[in-house]
Amino acid sequence: MTKIYSISGLMPLDAPLMSQRPFWSPHYTTSNAGLVGGGHWPRPGEVTLAHRGVLFLDELPEFGQSVLEVLRQPIEDKTVTISRAQGSVTFPANFMMVAAMNPCPCGNHGDSVKTCTCSAGTVSRYQKRISGPLLDRIDIFVEVPRVDYEKLTSPDAVEGSTEVRRRVETARKQQRSRFVGTTIQSNSDMGPSEVWNHCQLEEAAQRLVKTAMEQLHFSARAYHRTLKSDRTFADLAGSETVNVAHLAEAIQYRQRELA
User: Fold this and answer.
1) Which is deepest, 59, 84, 151, 253, by most CB within 10 Å?
2) Count of CB atoms within 10 A of residue 103's CB?
3) Contact at 8 Å (CB) between 218 and 212?
């Protein structure tokens, strides 16, 4: 990361080394070149500046469709190659993409309190601004419903961020131990061969994933991404083996129809 920020001219004068993972949140008016890099003399874009960190895309459907489509190759290959007449340059782009969106232009589609003022066609067009191939590259989908006043003000104890961080750090330590001696640093970096070696399913889990593929029409990419997710859920639970519960959780978070 230090090299990336150095050649981009973004290193603080009083900090010779990067000590924190980056977090980048580009505005939805950003261009293709701004997102993936470019220029007469190619410079790193937002996806490279977010390398080994988080790229947060708020109001996802508001980004230009062509801008979103250029994300497909970096998400898959974890690199960006920019070609110019003078030659080609490849930048690293191994980032975690986090995105947020409303279900429709007015924001009330599916709300239990407010009535949506959008027509069915408007809702469909809004959601289809994000292509199927890009959605297929997203591992976890979470719907965030309206939060009641009682829940916001409840004194009941909830799991704190310190406890969550402890579980995540334990899971990451387990993954580093699993891939020692390789270039892989986390479950998300696994290829098909590593998925085959480290995500073996018991018989009941095999039946479940087969049913999910038939009913939810998983692609090969979605299949492998689901297995990587269930390996991660098992790590978070402190389990050496992947069972049906971990797989069911991974499938539950796959893409759902919003409309």
Assistant:
1) 253
2) 19
3) yes
